Amino acid sequence: MQSLLPIEVDGYLTELVKAGQVDPVLDEMERRAEADGFPIVGRAVGRFLELQARMIGARRVVELGSGFGYSAYWFSRAVGEDGEVVCTDTDADNARLAEGYLRRAGRWDPVRYHVGDALEGLEAVDGELDVIYCDIDKDGYPAAWAAAAERLRVGGLFLCDNVLWDGRVAGLQPSDHADGHAAGQQGDHAAGGAAGDAAGRQGDHATGEDRRAAVTGAIVAMTREVAQDPRYVSAINPIRDGVLVALRVR
Ligand SMILES: C[S@@+](CC[C@H](N)C(=O)[O-])C[C@H]1O[C@@H](n2cnc3c(N)ncnc32)[C@H](O)[C@@H]1O
């Protein structure tokens, strides 16, 4: 994916966080993401997620779509050792990698990893939650919101990545802003990758364009629902690919 920000601005935001968070394990995770084209959130969003969780004194976090633990690294910093970060992912290899990285980084203690469907993982966790962070296949966003909205305490946060989807949510094509904008270190999962594959399963005959439209439609549908939900006050931070922040107020 491309960041919607000019490459210089994206680089500036990333470097600020790098200077403040030196950790060779984090560097290693970023190198793996780069080499494999795996879509991690990256430094600026990682730090932003940590900040959001710290700002509400979060102790209980559930991640929907954890990959090999990069975003969980940041939540683990926020909740402290007596907190809880429940990771979910369908891919058992990711769980194994996450444990390796997070143990070496001294960030594994609060983490539990559920291998399987993210919403089943969420259902298996009892009680009210402080943060639910959504980063699964994008066609699953409306269902994720439906499952998450009532699980958060008043004062809790629903956070969701990629809600600007390279500008497609506003009718742009990535080629409209490719020059001079930061190419994500996260690889391009917009048209293909996990999201595209999942959308593709819905109809073998769908064209790539149909798939992209369906995925974009799912993101927009979820974002509009959140924006209009009287229980929540929400806004989108447009760093990288857009992070939705929704605070439960009633
Ligand atoms: C964008 S990556 C997550 C990256 C991670 N949040 C980070 O920044 O480090 C999405 C991950 O979600 C997983 N995934 C997608 N849909 C899922 C679902 N419905 N249930 C569980 N895992 C899912 C994929 O296997 C993939 O590893």
Task: Walk me through this protein's architecture.
The protein has one domain (2-248): 3-Layer(aba) Sandwich (Rossmann fold), CATH 3.40.50.150. The protein is globular, with a radius of gyration of 17 Å. The protein contains nine helices and nine strands. Helix 5 (92-104) links the parallel strand 3 and strand 4 (111-115). Mean pLDDT is 90; it is low at 183-203. By secondary structure, it is α/β, with parallel strands linked by helices. The strands form two sheets. A seven-stranded mixed β-sheet has the order 4-3-2-5-6-9-8, sandwiched between helices. A two-stranded antiparallel ribbon has the order 1-7. The longest helix has 21 residues, at 208-228. S-adenosylmethionine binds at residues 39-41, 65-67, 70-71, 88-91, 94, 117-118, 135-137, 140, 194.
Which key phrases capture this entry?
two-stranded antiparallel ribbon, 7-stranded mixed sheet, binds S-adenosylmethionine, Rossmann fold, alpha/beta, 250 residues, 9 helices, single chain, 9 strands
Q: How is this fold's topology laid out?
A:
Elements: E1 2-6, H1 7-20, H2 24-36, H3 42-55, E2 60-64, H4 70-79, E3 84-89, H5 92-104, E4 111-115, H6 118-123, E5 129-134, H7 141-148, E6 152-161, E7 181-183, H8 193-200, H9 208-228, E8 232-237, E9 243-248
Parallel strand pairs: 2-3, 2-5, 3-4, 5-6
Antiparallel strand pairs: 1-7, 6-9, 8-9
Bound molecules: S-adenosylmethionine.
S-adenosylmethionine binds at residues 39-41, 65-67, 70-71, 88-91, 94, 117-118, 135-137, 140, 194.
